[in-house]
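Morning F.,

Quick status update on the modeling queue. The single chain you submitted on Monday has been processed. Sequence for confirmation:
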Amino acid sequence: MKKRKIAIVGLIILIWIGIVGFVMIKSKGKEKEAKSDKNLERYIIPEEKKIFLNGVVQPTQSKVFYKDVTKGENYKIHKKNGEDVSKGDLLITYKNEEVTNQISDSKNQIDNMKKGKEKELVPGTTEDEIKNMQKELSKLKDKQYSYEYAPFTGRAYISNKDTNGENQELLKLRSTDFNIKSQVSERELEKIKEEQKVDILILANDKKTQGTIEEISDEPEVQDIALDQQASTNTSVSNYPIEINLQSKENIENGYHVQINIKLSNNNFKIPTSAIKEEGNKKYVYLIKDNELVKQFIQVENKEDKFSEVISGLKEKDEIIKTITSEMKEGQVIE
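Structure tokens below.
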């Protein structure tokens, strides 16, 4: 009986030792793994330098037709508000009443000359004199009506303002093609160039599109802007108008305000060369996603000892392993 008790106690001790040993081994394994994870240096792809500008969507071509009193007080507009217009369409006809009266007087004079010649009541009247009067009449008829034609294809907008005189606005012609008008300060002027791609946020509907810088004016519009908000006095800064072509007219209306995002870099990233591993003819890095290592293939343009230039495969804010070791593998969980 005594031997049996000793055997049971011994078995319990052995089981206890086994449990303690298992726990210690597992704990050391986790400690080693945690220590290994802590030794993993991470490298975050930096954000690209950008310029943010505000802009307004406007027609690429625009013309306002004001009343031209030199062509006459009476006029007729041949288009309705909002009507589409083709280049060369007749927009406005003027009638000069003063010339109209001159034409009437000239006609009466010619008629009287003809009647007087026939009845010999106007001695000395010749056929040549009548012909000269008819030529003058023809010239007057050319001046009786004047016309305004559409210089480009667009849409007509009829003003309903009750203004008079030379400042009376009769019709606006706006092209249906849009671009963006904006300004860039002298401090950013040399950082951008024509034909450069830009990202555009349409503030009215939070839609995104792209565009291209079409023109950068060398004629500044000067405004007084504080270069340093802490400065006690304002410093004059020149702003230069720029025009941006839109990739698409979708979700865009005339007058919409936009935010323009211009990237200053060439979209290439420099990363530590130690982060790059080769697999045959390919190169990859370990991207950290959801605490796992994911193999991400990249294209490298310039590989140097410390840093290499990546031209594709990564984007800003991506997090990668700074130094790849032989123990690392895809799918490995890290803390």
